[in-house]
Specification:
Helix content is 43%, strand content 10%. It is mainly alpha-helical and 180 residues long.
Length: 180
């Protein structure tokens, strides 16, 4: 059964790095260890959020076109399971993961487009299992929004809901209602 857990953001010590140091490869081991630390704390985690957490810990704002190939190469060699969301973005997993969802607290920054679809699908399964009945899309969306910690159902939350609703374990009845 899918369950609700607390979302914890990885805490990385901030160090000063330059794009040139990253591109030269002198920080590859440091970048790899930071990626693994973030995955261990936040997995499953989308590639964009993983890269953002690591680049910010290196005192830089974004992974630009010169740094991206370095991060791609390092992340591809990590000893973790990697899957893809329906939008083609890679998702990194630690070895053992529970079937859970983690609402983002006000103290953390994790936008709906940064949440893996499988985590959102776990939320839908938990809602349907808890209520023990079929639900209309409107009912399910409202509870999903609240469970994931969002104030309103904007386009990106709606996109996350729709992608999650297509996952295994979420079924539609003949009259369009949702069930597990």
């Amino acid at each position: 059964m899918a369950e609700k857990k607390e979302y914890k953001e990885a805490v990385l010590e901030t160090i000063g790095a330059t794009p040139e140091a990253i591109i030269s490869g002198s920080l590859n081991d440091e970048i790899k260890s930071r990626m693994l630390a973030v995955i261990e704390t936040e997995a499953p985690i989308k590639e964009s959020l993983l890269f953002k957490r690591v680049i910010n810990s290196l005192s830089l704002k974004k992974v630009g076109s010169r740094i991206l190939p370095v991060f791609d190469s390092i992340s591809s060699s990590l000893p973790v399971r990697i899957t893809e969301d329906s939008d083609g973005e890679r998702v990194f997993h630690k070895e053992t993961e529970d079937d859970c969802y983690r609402p983002t607290p006000d103290s953390a920054v994790r936008y709906s487009y940064q949440i893996p679809e499988e985590e959102a699908a776990a939320c839908l399964r938990a809602i349907l299992e808890k209520h023990g009945k079929t639900m209309t899309k409107k009912e399910l969306k409202k509870i999903f929004r609240d469970e994931m910690g969002y104030q309103k159902m904007g386009a990106s939350v709606d996109n996350l809901f729709n992608a999650a609703a297509k996952h295994d374990g979420i079924k539609r009845t003949g009259n369009g209602r949702f069930t597990v």
